[in-house]
Amino acid sequence: xxxxxYFANLVDKLGTGGETIDLPVGVTTVRDLVAWQRARGGxxxxxxxxxxxxxxxxxxxxxxxxxxxxxxxxxxIAARP
Length: 81
Hints:
Strands 2-1-5-3-4 form a five-stranded mixed beta sheet. The chain is about 25% helix and about 30% strand. The protein is globular and about 25 Å long. It is of the alpha+beta class. The longest helix has 9 residues, at about 30-40.
């Protein structure tokens, strides 16, 4: 299972500091994960369309094409409030 962490004001926006999930079929890159997060609707949709997010995979800054898997730790960090 992938571990997702949310930092800075994302905790307030999303109501959680993190979660553990099985990545859905077809979610194999950071870009796919962001699209899946947006598809959750509500605050998830508005938060994950914000270009002011930094994303790390296993504590390394990631690009949209960075591959991800169920053993990864993925962090979303708000770049500004």
